[in-house]
Structures are given as structure tokens and as C-alpha cells.
């Protein structure tokens, strides 16, 4: 399947600070010019982190996230992958990851430039994993970082786990989303055990021009662009 077919079938093409990008229904972002794939907030080993504190969650979050990541990597075949911080739920997450999961991740990383961006949950490099460890990454007119910086145009960030809510025909629908006003983007969380924060929450105040805000809501196999004026708190 070529790029044009993928865009027509399931993804939405947009521009961020003049750079062409494709929003994938998985919650990943693809930049064709650089063959670069971006994911954010994987929160790998969140289940085991909770278990250490006595809150037992089903131990399937890491492998479920890795399988989804493998699928989107196979779909786009990127040369570069950027993981925008909180790749692991805590500083010890990479060390706790079972060897079979580690091998699954290493297989995806093989032959690619892989960038781990520092997050608030994982402020140090992952243990025993290759890749480049950076606080942020500048590429062309874009800067990739974990936490959005107010006033920064050309930014692709994560951290806030954006979600959007609409009401149609009396039915409320809420989904994770990409949030953008054309100048910057906040990525949805990719991890299997991650929630969402409404893009109208005050945590997003000052990040977007409300008149230009679009929430690219994630469906099962499509991305739905929703104008900011249609969103509900």
C-alpha cells in the first residue's frame, strides 16, 4: 500500500508549521519528508509499576502497546522513530521489562534511528536499550519535546494526553485526539493504559488559537477532524 492509499484509506494529512504530516488512527504521527514516525507517552510497564505499589492491574499493557507500535512501524516503514517522553512509566520500567518484550522492541528498533525524548516519568535513559537519548530534538522547522512550551510555534509535544468530546444527536462521544492549530501539535498518548484530558481543560490554555484549533479524534480505523467550535467540555 503506497502513501497516497494509506492517507485516503485511514489517515488524515495536515500541516504543522508548514511541514506535511499524517495523523494515523493508532495515535502515531508520520512525517513523509523525513520518513519519521512520532509516538508519545507509551508508559511501558505501567502495570508492573502499579503492582509494586500494591495496585494489581492486568499485566498485558506493555505487550499490547508494543504490538500496536509494531503494526504502525510496519505500516509506515520509518527511517526515524521519535518517542516523545514517558516512554516508560517510571525510571525502572525498562529494567523490569521481560526479556521477550525487550526482544520485541529491539526488533522494531533494528535498522532505524530511534530517539528517546526525556519525559517527566522517565527523566533518565532506558536501561540496556539502544537509541539516542535527548531532552528535545530539532528537525527543520519543528521541535520535538515532551512537555508543551507556551509560545513555541513549530512544536510537537506530548505529556497532556489530549482527548476531545462532541455531542451529536444527543449522544456524547469522547476519544483521544491529536490537537493542533496548524502551528503546533500535542500528541495523543499511545500507551494502552493511558487516559485522556479534555483539550478544553485549562491545562491547554494558551497553547492553541481557539479559532484554529482542530481535534483529530481517533476512531477504530479512521481519524475524524473536528473543529474547535464543535468541542464540548
Condensed summary:
This protein has one domain (3-230): Purple Acid Phosphatase, chain A, domain 2 (4-Layer Sandwich). 19% of the residues lie in helices and 30% in strands. It is built from 5 helices and 16 strands.
Write the layout of secondary structure elements.
Blueprint: H1 3-9, E1 12-16, E2 19-23, E3 29-31, E4 36-39, H2 46-52, H3 61-76, E5 80-83, H4 93-96, H5 99-109, E6 113-117, E7 132-134, E8 137-139, E9 142-144, E10 155-157, E11 162-168, E12 171-180, E13 184-186, E14 197-198, E15 214-218, E16 223-227
Helix pairs in contact: 3-5
Description:
There is one protein chain. This protein has 233 residues and is α/β, with parallel strands linked by helices. It has a single domain (3-230), classed as Purple Acid Phosphatase, chain A, domain 2, CATH 3.60.21. The chain contains 5 helices and 16 strands. It has helices at residues 3-9, 46-52, 61-76, 93-96, 99-109; strands spanning 12-16, 19-23, 29-31, 36-39, 80-83, 113-117, 132-134, 137-139, 142-144, 155-157, 162-168, 171-180, 184-186, 197-198, 214-218, 223-227. The strands form 2 sheets. Strands 8, 9, 10, 11, 12, 13, 14, 15 and 16 form a 9-stranded mixed β-sheet that branches. A 7-stranded mixed β-sheet has the order 1-2-3-4-5-6-7, with no helix packed on it. Helix 3 (61-76) runs parallel beside helix 5. The radius of gyration is 17 Å and the shape is globular. Residues 4-9 have low confidence and may be disordered.
Amino acid at each position: 500500500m503506497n502513501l497516497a492509499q494509506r492517507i485516503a484509506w485511514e489517515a488524515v494529512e495536515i500541516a504543522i508549521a508548514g511541514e506535511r504530516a499524517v495523523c494515523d488512527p493508532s495515535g502515531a504521527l508520520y512525517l513523509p519528508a523525513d520518513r519519521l514516525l512520532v509516538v508519545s507517552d507509551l508508559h511501558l510497564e505501567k502495570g508492573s509499576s502499579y503492582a509494586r505499589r500494591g495496585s494489581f492491574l492486568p499485566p498485558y499493557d506493555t505487550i499490547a502497546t508494543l504490538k500496536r507500535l509494531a503494526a504502525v512501524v510496519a505500516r509506515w516503514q520509518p527511517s526515524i522513530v521519535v518517542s516523545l517522553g514517558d516512554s516508560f512509566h517510571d525510571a525502572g520500567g525498562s529494567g523490569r521489562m521481560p526479556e521477550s518484550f525487550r526482544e520485541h522492541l529491539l526488533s522494531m528498533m533494528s535498522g532505524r534511528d530511534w530517539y528517546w525524548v526525556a519525559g517527566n516519568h522517565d527523566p533518565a535513559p532506558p536501561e540496556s536499550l539502544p537509541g539516542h537519548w535527548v531532552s528535545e530534538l530539532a528537525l527543520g522547522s519543528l521541535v520535538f519535546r515532551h512537555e508543551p512550551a507556551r509560545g513555541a510555534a513549530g512544536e510537537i509535544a506530548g505529556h497532556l494526553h489530549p482527548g476531545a468530546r462532541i455531542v451529536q444527536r444527543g449522544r456524547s462521544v469522547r476519544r483521544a485526539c491529536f490537537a493542533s492549530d496548524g502551528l503546533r501539535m500535542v500528541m495523543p498518548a499511545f500507551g494502552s493504559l493511558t487516559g485522556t484530558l479534555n483539550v478544553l481543560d485549562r491545562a491547554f490554555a494558551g497553547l492553541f488559537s481557539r479559532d484554529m484549533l482542530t481535534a483529530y479524534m481517533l476512531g477504530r480505523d479512521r481519524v475524524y477532524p473536528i473543529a474547535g467550535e464543535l468541542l464540548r467540555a
